[in-house]
Every structure is written in structure tokens, then in C-alpha cells.
Specification:
This protein is of the alpha+beta class. The strands form four sheets. The protein has a five-stranded antiparallel β-sheet. Helix 1 (8-25) runs antiparallel to helix 2 (31-47) and helix 4 runs parallel beside helix 5. The protein is 38% helix and 25% strand.
Length: 398
């Protein structure tokens, strides 16, 4: 009795059923290996083949990812396409067909399948051109879709990691600014990416003293945010020694500089400004390391800037920074900012330090929140850098 699959109509129905069954198995989450296994099962089931191999190319080298049968054969785990061809020629008597899968528009890895002879008398799988072409087209589309699916999953994973990094970064900023006698404090920070490299802090030293820090890590994104968190942790660890009198402000800055130099690469550095405001003694102590100079707005409408103390932190381990002391009188307002403000544009022109001073005089107001609102709302909405602002107003009514 002739084999039922030799009947042309039955044969076509069986091929169509095999293709439909194969198509049902194709889901984007299978991945390349899962898709190849499904291809192998479909072809082996239709043609009664017991031997099959699957290879996936990585950087021009094919890696063996699935093996069925070929018992007793020595098959290297990795081969080039030429080596696979040479291996197939050597074992030509055991190989019926080699099927290459090339995903569309390079959206996926090139794959290669090798099948042995059919156990069915008279069945020659290499003659099943239409069936193999249909299988190939379906597999190519599935591999392309799997690659897109993997990319989407990776994008979602990165976005989730960035959201978590953003939450962690925000937790490093002061959740509540300290209350200091006669001092009105406010801060504002906005990253141009999910996470950024700007940092600010306000740390209470006594009821009339506060340490204000503002910093800008070179670059943006996760790397800058990680370095920023290191600055925050180091500063917080050193502050207690200021309170006890073991270290002064200059000592703390020099130690931060040394730590950054030892823990970061040469292209990573931090501009920063550190200020201690003492409302009892009516003075400011400052160290400004390569950072835009903080501005003091005086009650009569004039402005002045704090002095520069030297280069950014993390460049030269033993750089001789200097600290400066100046008067800070009732009615004075200190404004610290990152270059996201000075490099922003108003009506197409870069704001710069002079523009900031003009804004402070013309629109600044006399309380910290009004000052920050005037500065942050005056810049273009197309922010290209992280922006951080701190305002401290000496207000005797507080």
C-alpha cells in the first residue's frame, strides 16, 4: 500500500497544516533559538528527519545552538560559514539540505540549519522547494520581530533603571531645607535628561550657620549622576568634622578634591562652590572651584561676585585652593547657579553672568522664591543642560 503522504493532494494538505502549525508557534518572545527549534520541529515532523543542527551567527562566526541526532558526528561549537560548508561536504552522504535564514533589513542574526536524510522512502526534502521557502519566509519575519521585541524590552528595562536612578538621585537632594536664623533659603533643580550631574545641598551647622554646596559634574546622564552621588556622600561624611571644629571649609574642599582625583578618570571632574553663611557674625566663607561665581544682590540694587578659588575638583590632587571671607549684611541675597543658567538663552542670546545680574536687579524680588522664579522662568524652554539654582536671603524678620 503506497504511503499516504505520496498522494499529491494529501501531501499539499499536510504541508499546509505543517506551515499553519509552525506559524502558530511564532511569538516575539520566543527568541532566535526558540524560533529555530520550532523550524526544526516542523521540518523534521513533515519529512520524518531525525538529524538536524542549528547555528546562529555572531560577528561572522556561527555558534551551534541546537542539535538533534547526528550521533557520533564531531561538530565544533563554533564555525565560520566556510568551515560549515567544508564540514557539510565532508559529511555529504548524511546531509539532505542546508537552509540559510537571513532576516530582513539586518533586523536579526543570520542563521543556518542543516538537516539529515528523511527516514521516509522516496522523500527528498531538498525537492520541497515551496515548503522550505515558505518556512524560511516565516522564520525570517519571526527572527526580525524577535530582534525588535528584544530591543523594545531592553529599552523598557533601561527606562525602568533610569526612573529608579532618578528616584535615588532625587533622594540625595535635601528633602527639606534647614531653618537658619534670619535666613530665607530656596532651591531649584531640573535635569535635561532623566538623571543629571548637578548637585546641591544645604547642611545646618548651627542655628545661625549653614553650609551651602552646589556642583556640576562634567557630562550628563547616569555616569554624571553616579559621580554626583559620590560627591554628596563624601561631603556629608566630612560635615560632622566642620561642626566639631576638626576641619575648616578649606580642609573639606581639599579632601573632596583628593578623593575625586583618586576615584575618577582624568576626563571626569566637578565644578563646585561651597559657602558657609553665618548670620550671627554676618559673614560668608567661600571656596569656588572652577564653578560659575555666585552673585550677591545688595539691597541698593548693586551686585558683586564671590572670588574664584581655583580649578575644578578632581584634576590635580594637591591643588592649593584658597578660601575667602566677606561681609553678608541684612538684605543681601546670595545666588548660586550651575552653567545650565548662564549658558541658557533669552531671545536667542546666551544669558551669561552679566545677563543673570541684570535679571536679578530688574526682576529678582527680595525673597528667595521670587529670585528663583525670575531666573528659572526667564530662560528658553529648550533646556540643553542641567539647571540648578540656590538663593539665600539675609532677612532679619525671619
Amino acid at each position: 500500500m503506497p504511503n499516504e503522504q505520496h498522494n499529491p493532494l494529501t501531501h499539499e494538505r499536510f504541508a499546509l497544516t505543517s506551515l499553519l502549525d509552525f506559524a502558530r508557534t511564532l511569538t516575539a518572545d520566543l527568541g532566535n533559538v526558540g524560533i529555530l527549534k520550532s523550524v526544526i520541529r516542523t521540518i523534521m515532523g513533515k519529512a520524518l528527519i531525525k538529524d538536524a543542527l542549528a547555528f546562529i551567527a555572531h560577528d561572522g562566526v556561527f555558534q551551534l545552538v541546537h542539535r538533534a541526532g547526528f550521533v557520533g558526528f564531531q561538530i565544533p561549537d563554533t564555525m565560520t560559514e566556510a568551515e560549515i560548508g567544508a564540514w557539510a561536504v565532508t559529511h555529504d552522504n548524511a546531509i539532505a539540505v542546508i537552509l540559510k535564514l537571513r532576516p530582513r533589513e539586518n533586523e536579526g542574526d543570520e542563521c543556518m540549519l542543516i538537516f539529515g536524510d528523511s527516514m521516509m522512502p522516496g522523500m527528498e526534502i531538498e525537492n520541497e522547494t515551496e515548503f522550505l521557502e515558505s518556512i524560511s519566509r516565516l522564520a525570517n519575519m519571526a527572527i526580525s520581530n524577535a530582534r525588535l521585541f528584544e530591543r523594545e524590552q531592553e529599552r523598557e528595562r533601561i527606562e525602568a533603571d533610569l526612573r529608579l536612578a532618578r528616584e535615588i538621585q532625587l533622594s540625595l537632594f535635601p528633602q527639606v531645607l534647614p531653618e537658619i536664623l534670619h535666613l530665607d533659603l530656596a532651591a531649584y533643580s531640573k535635569s535635561c535628561e532623566v538623571v543629571g550631574g548637578d548637585y546641591y545641598d544645604a547642611i545646618r551647622l548651627s542655628d545661625h550657620e549653614v553650609l551651602i554646596a552646589i556642583a556640576d559634574v562634567v557630562g550628563k546622564g547616569v555616569a554624571a549622576a553616579l559621580l554626583m552621588s559620590s560627591v554628596q556622600a563624601s561631603l556629608r561624611a566630612l560635615v560632622s568634622m566642620i561642626r566639631t571644629g576638626q576641619l575648616g571649609l578649606l580642609d573639606v574642599v581639599e579632601e573632596l578634591n583628593r578623593l575625586l582625583f583618586e576615584s575618577t578618570s582624568a576626563e571626569r571632574f566637578v565644578t563646585a562652590a561651597f559657602v558657609i553663611i553665618d548670620t550671627k557674625r554676618e559673614r560668608i566663607l567661600s571656596v569656588v572651584a572652577g564653578h560659575p561665581l555666585p552673585i550677591i544682590l545688595h539691597p541698593n540694587g548693586s551686585t558683586s561676585s564671590l572670588e574664584s578659588s581655583g580649578i575644578p575638583l578632581g584634576i590635580i590632587a594637591t591643588f592649593p585652593y584658597e578660601f575667602y571671607e566677606r561681609a553678608f549684611r541684612p538684605g543681601d541675597a546670595l545666588v548660586l547657579y550651575t552653567d545650565g543658567l548662564s549658558e541658557s538663552r533669552i531671545e536667542g542670546k546666551e544669558l551669561g553672568p552679566q545677563g543673570i545680574e541684570t535679571l536679578l536687579v530688574s526682576r529678582g524680588g527680595r525673597d528667595s522664591k521670587s529670585i528663583l522664579k525670575a531666573l528659572s522662568s526667564s530662560t528658553d524652554s529648550n533646556q540643553k543642560d542641567d539647571l540648578t539654582l540656590i538663593a539665600a536671603v539675609f532677612d532679619k524678620s525671619k
